[in-house]
Specification:
Helix content: 10-25%
Strand content: 35-45%
Radius of gyration: 28 Å
């Protein structure tokens, strides 16, 4: 009998009820007695011989007996399974929030030099490749387009037993995989019309917690991936929470993750000071296409003076065009999701925009209140960056955002599509760039192409040409401004206001 079968059996009888404190105490005592009696049963002399089917192993016998105990005491399946693991304790703190505490044992507390381990995977699906990213311990992807799948992995040193708040979850499944006990949480994703999953595995002998995250794999597929995980000793030591110059990495501590998630929960109801309106005087005269605008310089030579008014970098938007297809773009730089909007004839069709009402993650979750299908266009801007100083710039960042705004009687307002639908807090699209003005496409001329969106070099007086592009709902073309300073696409940012906007409304 597997844990998930036990879980389903208990849930079928009891639903999602929970034990009272008194019942929980009684059940804990029952578990202890069951486990102790099971351990005291005689062990067969011929250990190689299979046990008879009617005599389960001690741990399975204890679990089977505990089912009856749990049902009699009125404990939901998930509550039982978590407690039965011994290392993980789950407590509901809201309809959609679970507090997950991992027993850190006697080693909880201040970190010290510990044995280091390398995370290794075996049995990954054919075609799986590592996706290098500084934000992940490991990230793998396979498949293409809509069939692409993958997961990310994060490893923590277990230094605290404080509970981690797991929010916006609609269910949990206990698992035993890769020699570790764990749990998988399911989280509906209203933004992408999908379900993401968080798997936490505990390796007590190595004092580690492994977190696997996916928004493309089912629980069964994630378990299959995790089954090939091993933590291999490197033969070296590491101090958790401290940056290691030798490996250019840090073994994160579990307490930091707990603190970060707790801060998110505490701040979830807070409002932020966002400047959504500005006077015509604040916005000032708009720049026209063809105007040269000094922009903040983020380069190796000016990193400490970034954003200074004496910046040696200037930008000129030389052309802005609107297209019905993607043929003017560099195919290698096009976001992989954009071609999904092309019709059979090769022109841009409609994008589905979902209107989401926010939940607090505890007693409510994000939900889709409306959807709309809107035609989209490609907005392309050609920009020349010039070094007006007397020092060569290297690794200079180029960044430009698209802002939606309207003007009425001397007041500028940020346009938020969510405001067009009652009950909507945010308008989102699974194709990036349709509802936001972030930088999703750029192409730098070959002579100056550096890492990501950086110019490799720019000599005094030299000019580099950069192509930017965005996908925009057709009915928003009359609300578009470019922010050469790249401060914000969702508010009137001080740096953008100081630099000025370029008017590209049509």
């Amino acid at each position: 009998m597997h844990n998930d079968n036990l879980d389903n059996s208990i849930r079928a009888v009891m639903g999602d009820v929970h034990a009272t404190p008194a019942a929980q105490t009684a059940m804990d005592g029952a578990f202890a007695v069951i486990a102790r009696e099971a351990e005291q049963r005689p062990v067969a002399a011929a250990t190689a011989r299979r046990q008879p089917a009617f005599f389960p192993s001690a741990s399975r016998w204890a679990r089977a007996a505990a089912v009856t105990c749990a049902v009699c005491l009125g404990v939901g399946g998930t509550a039982y399974a978590a407690d039965a693991l011994g290392l993980i304790d789950l407590r509901q703190s809201g309809t959609y929030q679970t507090m997950m505490a991992v027993d850190a044992g006697d080693d909880a507390g201040a970190a010290h030099a510990v044995a280091d381990y390398r995370l290794a995977f075996s049995g990954l699906p054919e075609g799986a490749t590592a996706d290098d990213s500084d934000d992940y311990l490991a990230k793998y992807r396979w498949g293409e387009g809509a069939d692409e799948k993958g997961f990310s992995a994060f490893l923590y040193y277990l230094d605290t037993s404080d509970p981690l708040p797991v929010s916006s979850t609609t269910g949990s499944t206990p698992v035993t995989v890769a020699g570790a006990e764990g749990v998988v949480f399911e989280k509906p994703d209203a933004y992408n019309n999908a379900t993401s999953r968080d798997m936490y595995l505990v390796f007590p002998d190595k004092q580690r917690v492994l977190w696997l995250w996916t928004d493309t794999l089912s629980t069964e597929e994630l378990v299959a991936v995790a089954d090939g995980i091993t933590l291999e000793p490197t033969g070296t030591t590491v101090v958790p929470g401290q940056y290691d110059a030798g490996t250019l990495s840090t073994l994160e501590v579990w307490s930091a993750e707990v603190a970060a998630e707790s801060d998110c929960v505490e701040s979830s109801g807070e409002s932020f000071d966002v400047k959504l309106t500005a006077t015509a005087e604040e916005v000032g005269p708009l720049h026209a296409v063809g105007d040269t605008v000094p922009v903040p310089c983020y380069a190796n030579e000016f990193w400490s003076d970034r954003g200074a008014t004496e910046s040696p970098l200037a930008a000129t938007v030389t052309a802005v065009t609107v297209h019905d297809d993607l043929t003017t773009l560099d195919p290698a730089a096009i976001p992989e999701e954009w071609p999904s909007l092309l019709t059979d004839g090769g022109t841009l069709g409609n994008a589905e925009i979902r209107h989401v009402a926010f939940g607090d993650g505890r007693d409510s979750i994000n939900t889709v209140v409306a959807t709309e299908s809107v035609p989209v266009k490609l907005v392309e801007a050609t920009v020349e960056y010039r070094n007006t100083g007397d020092t060569e710039l290297t690794d200079a960042l180029v960044y430009m955002l698209l802002v939606r705004a309207t003007e009425n009687e001397g007041t500028w307002s940020i346009f938020n599509r969510a405001n067009t639908v009652e009950g909507s807090d945010e308008a989102v699209c699974s194709v990036p760039g349709v509802t936001y003005g972030e930088l999703y496409y750029h192409s730098i001329d070959e002579a100056h192409r550096g890492e990501k969106n950086n110019l490799s070099h720019l000599a005094p007086g030299e000019t580099a040409t950069v192509q930017f592009a965005w996908l925009v709902p057709a009915d928003e073309l009359d609300k578009l401004l470019l922010a050469p300073a790249g401060g914000s696409d969702y508010q009137f940012n001080e740096e953008d206001l100081a630099c000025g906007y370029v008017d590209i409304r049509s």
